[in-house]
Amino acid sequence: MALFDKSHSIFMVMISFYSLYTIFSSVLDVSNAVQETSTSGSAGVDGFWPLAPKHVIINNTVQSKQTLNVHCKSSEDDLGLIHIPWNQTWGFKFHVNVFKTTKFRCHFTWGIGESHEFNIFTVARDDDNFGDYEVCKVCIWEVGRDNKGKAMCRVNRDELNHPVCFPWDDKAIL
Ligand SMILES: *[C@@H]1O[C@H](CO)[C@@H](O)[C@H](O)[C@H]1NC(C)=O
Ligand SMILES: *[C@@H]1O[C@H](CO)[C@@H](O)[C@H](O)[C@H]1NC(C)=O
């Protein structure tokens, strides 16, 4: 009997931990929350060593001022559908993998019928010291601010006036 009671209370403890976890995860699941994904191993050096820690921030700057719906995925992580109010941000953190093949691709929708895809993080563009663009540790993206064909602008926190802008890559595949 005593044995039964003991295992029963252990079971209860597990249940309450589980419900705490569930509550906590659902509280975290809001826009503006920073999502932590596959944090593996020690920190590396950006642009050179693998495992560099990265923080991607998405800023809703669509011209129609509507809510931006974002769904980002890598081959390992699905960050779910997030709704970002206009002029607000949402972000996620991860480490570049050992093979430096980490890629996050996002699907953006807003308004009636706006639907676009973009590789929000690639090693070649965002974490290569010998690449065409500066390496970013905090990679801030303004979405939809420019309407002249280059809707995705990566801004530098220190130099907000010097964005590098790219068109959607709707046709590329992950
Ligand atoms: C989002 O972008 C707008 C336009 O550049 C800027 O005014 C605003 O401060 C940005 N928001 C954040 C949180 O960086
Ligand atoms: C956008 O957000 C920034 C803070 O991130 C704020 O300073 C700015 O006034 C906002 N712009 C508008 C038009 O609300």
Automatic annotation (TrEMBL):
Record has S-adenosyl-L-methionine as a keyword? no
Which InterPro entries does the record associate with it?
Answer: Self-incomp_S1
Give the record's GO biological process terms.
Answer: rejection of self pollen
Q: Name one GO cellular component term.
A: extracellular region
Q: Where in the cell is it found?
A: Secreted
> Where does the sequence pass through the membrane?
9-28
Alphabetized UniProt keyword annotations:
Membrane, Secreted, Self-incompatibility, Signal, Transmembrane, Transmembrane helix
One Pfam family this sequence matches: Self-incomp_S1
Top-level taxon of origin: Eukaryota
PANTHER family (alphabetical)? PTHR31232, S-PROTEIN HOMOLOG (PTHR31232:SF133)
Q: Which family does it belong to?
A: Belongs to the plant self-incompatibility (S1) protein family.
Q: What is this protein called?
A: S-protein homolog
Source organism (scientific name): Brassica carinata (Ethiopian mustard)
